[in-house]
Amino acid sequence: MNTENAKSQMRKGMLEYCILLLLHKGPAYASDIIQQLKEAQLIVVEGTLYPLLTRLKNNRLLRYEWQESTQGPPRKYYALTLDGEEFLRHLDSAWNELTNTVNILRSGSVAEVILT
Amino acid sequence: MNTENAKSQMRKGMLEYCILLLLHKGPAYASDIIQQLKEAQLIVVEGTLYPLLTRLKNNRLLRYEWQESTQGPPRKYYALTLDGEEFLRHLDSAWNELTNTVNILRSGSVAEVILT
DNA sequence: AAAATATACTTTGCAATACAAGGTACTAAA
DNA sequence: TTTAGTACCTTGTATTGCAAAGTATATTTT
């Protein structure tokens, strides 16, 4: 029962949201995504990211294009589809609800939330 | 790829945190917890909660006491242990990091966060 | 040209956990 | 005695994050 496992579990589901949020700003390829997430304090490894990207693509939330690189093999640049944009808005709602829930639980009883 | 599944996945790990947050305010038994979480907009079912409570108890984060009820069978009232309180503080940090991450990703680039 | 290195993408096996569905046990009322 | 209500528990399944190892392409070094 360590903190690392707890944090890893918190990532579940959140990661999908974070990827979509990131791609909403513009296309990116895997290493790119990992780097940007790291800058946002979220550590993700390849073995997690690649299957996730594939899954999102298979569900038509993402699409990709091959692009040549000047420094190595070509890259798969992923971008949101229209379905992906819509799904992202649903996840926005889900996230809002979740933060609201935590805030209520954090600040004491529901009554206290109303009073303070 | 539906929204319900996504929300269910977001719950992973968060639920543990929410239970500890709730019990931090005082002892409660299972139906109690389900009811309070529902008031905080978080739907949890018995099949999820009971194994979770048992797991937390086995890891010494929770303890329980049987208490008679005037309206049915006795209840298991769960409460945080000292280990549980400490673990809760770690989860507080993890939650703070996660919300920070999402906020960064939501508001555009890191630079934009600083500028706005 | 061959070997080594770097970059990028992929796969496999495992562990953790939410949930549906069903079950057990005790109490009180009809 | 039967029925209804409350509370606790278990089993099987699906999903997903991750470690570890593998494949492929491009560049640099020897």
How is this structure best described in words?
- The structure is a homodimer.
- By secondary structure, chain A is mainly alpha-helical.
- Chain A is about 65% helix and about 10% strand.
- Chain A contains six helices and two strands; from the N terminus they run ααααββαα.
- Chain A has a two-stranded antiparallel ribbon with strand order 1-2.
- In chain A, β1 and β2 form a beta hairpin.
- In chain A, α2 packs across α5.
- The radius of gyration of chain A is 17 Å and the shape is globular.
- The C terminus of chain A is likely disordered.
- Chains A and B meet through α1, α2 and α5 of A and α1, α2 and α5 of B.
- Chain A binds a DNA duplex (30 and 30 nucleotides) through α1 and α4.
User: What's the main sheet of chain A like?
Assistant: 2 strands, antiparallel
Q: Assembly state here? A: homodimer
**What is the helix content of chain A?**
55-70%
What class would the helix/strand composition of chain A place it in? mainly alpha
What Rg of chain A is obtained from the alpha carbons, in whole angstroms? Answer: 17 Å
Helix count of chain A? 6
User: Averaged pLDDT of chain A, please?
Assistant: 90
Strand content of chain A: 5-15%
Largest interface: A-B, 41 and 41 residues
Global outline of chain A: globular
Unreliable sequence segments of chain A: 109-116
Q: What is the H/E order of chain A?
A: HHHHEEHH
Total beta strand runs of chain A: 2
Major sheet strand order of chain A: 1-2
Query: How far is the N terminus from the C terminus of chain A?
Result: 35 Å
